[in-house]
Amino acid sequence: MNLNTKKAIVGKIASILWVSGSFGSHVSMLYPLSVLNGEGAKTEYTGISFAGATQNLDTGFKVIHNAPRTSSVINSKSISKNGGKCTYRSLVRITENAKKSKSTVSCESLMLDDISVSDTIPVNDIRADDVEFSHEATIGKLSDKTIFYLMSRGISEEDAKAMIVRGFAYPISKELPVEYAVEMNNLINLELEGAIG
Amino acid sequence: MKDLVLNETSIRTSKNYKINNITISDYLNPKYGKFNNTKISFESEKDSVSQDVSKEELAYGISKEKNDEVFKKANSNIKINVNTKTNKSVLIKNTFDKDNTCLIDNIDIESEEGCKETITIIYESDNEGKYYHNGIIRVNAKKDSVIKINILNLLNNKSDNYLSIQNVVEDRAVVDYTYVEFGGRNSISNYYSNVLGKEGKTNIDTIFLGSDNQIFDANYLTDLRGEKTETRMNVQGALNDKAVNHFKGIIDFKKGCKKAKGNEEESCLLLSENAKSLAMPVLLCSEEDVEGSHGNSAGKVNEKELFYIMTRGFNEREAMKLLVKAKFNKIMDKFSNDEYKNRIIYEIDQRME
């Protein structure tokens, strides 16, 4: 079990960047929180979850904009296979104090077989008018057209699918220090062995 | 007087997000009585209406108490049997006044295979009284049928409006809603669509316009069960003064709904600093081969667009009205009857004064 509480209070013109990779534990609940209390504060969250057999990874991010001109960017990806369950939960709260704040949320979920589960449960609480807020999410499987394109270049189906999954995770792995990015790619390769097809 | 907890979501979140349900404080039961101001008109002679409506429990609904109120105290029971294969229209117009203050309606729509119909239901009132509406609309769309339902809530801002909708959609049937939600001090709506059949489709396009202390609470849930089924939820709105909107939209791709598509979009224009928007667009997926997406946005009017329109000679209020109408335009275009479109435009002008 991995039950995690992480909070950050961000002051004036300060910024905090969260990078999260959830691969392990049978059950994981992880929702980092940033409270943007100072004018001009920023937070960014980039996270990836990979749920395999018997895993239930319930992750997400919470941000509270409580000062003017604050901004947040949330980018989350999840992959589920072999019966794994990925759940993305988030909260974006823009209070009355947070005039001229901005927030964007992007959530993508990839399902590698039809026995896995992927849920997206965001809550967006906007209490100020002079803000810019947007949220988007998609759920789907590996694109047949993309697989066909790679296979037409001589790559086997299994390698093509693995390449697409690595490409899906690339925006997160590039944020990490090199040694952690290599470790994450190795973990993805290990998770993918025998997972596709 | 008591507190009434309504519109529970099937997905629970933290209590302090205050979106799991809505509480109506100091609730008083309305004065029940007859409602004699409902006009029904048919375009097709093949269609028929009766009062033999279902009292089967809804799968969801606003709350058990509100559903039971309809089953026990309905003063308007309408069952429409759709038997025509060419698209005809039915109009149900309910007008509230000092002699008709409380409407509790139970509407069943049963369509035969391959039949088509457009049903328009209007709830309107004067600006004087405080009125009450609680209704259930139940649609059973058989194979290959196409049912379009337009609902116009044009009550005044002192009234209360509660509406529960339930649809069962069979193979290749289409159920399409256009919901104009302008009226009601509290306007609470619950929509559930069970898309059982292969290639079944269900859509709901909603526009809302809030002012004063209006509260809109919408809880939409679509279960996609059949293969190649589709659903769309498109909610566009604008809030002024201290109006509040709660939107909970859940698309659930159930196991077995291969190649299903679901799209959910909610966008709210905040026209005053006290307006609030709370949204929870949810995607649940237990099937791999699907396409699901949702989007949610909130913010104020684009200042550049406002400035551009004002340079053309419009004052700020008129420019705002134009931008709100532009936002609603795509959904308003679904009305083939210009009379309804013009009525909606008139209501926007009045409510934004």
Key words describing this protein structure:
heterodimer, A: 197 residues, alpha/beta, 7-stranded parallel sheet, 12 strands, 20% helix, B: mainly beta, 9-stranded mixed sheet, 4 helices, 14% helix, globular
Describe this structure in words.
The complex is a heterodimer of chains A (197) and B (353). Chain A is 20% helix and 47% strand. Chain A is α/β, with parallel strands linked by helices and 197 residues long. In chain B, helix 3 (316-332) runs antiparallel to helix 4 (338-351). At the A-B interface, strand 11 and strand 12 of A face strand 19 and strand 20 of B.
Biggest interface and residues each: A-B, 34 and 39 residues
- From the N-terminal CA to the C-terminal CA of chain B, the straight-line distance is 34 Å
What is the 3D shape of chain B? globular
Strands of chain B, count: 20
Shape field of chain A: elongated
Q: How is the quaternary structure best described?
A: heterodimer
The secondary structure category of chain B is mainly beta
Total helical elements of chain B: 4
- Spans of at least 5 consecutive residues with low confidence of chain A: none
- So how many helices of chain A? 3
H/E element sequence of chain B: EEEEHEEEEEEEEEEEEEEEEHHH
The helicity of chain B comes to 10-25%
Average pLDDT figure of chain A: 91
Helix content of chain A: 10-25%
Roughly what fraction of the amino acids of chain A lie in strands? over 45%
Low-confidence stretches of chain B: none
Order of strands across the main sheet of chain B: 3-6-8-10-12-14-16-18-20
Return the string of H and E elements of chain A.
EEEEEEEEEEEEHHH
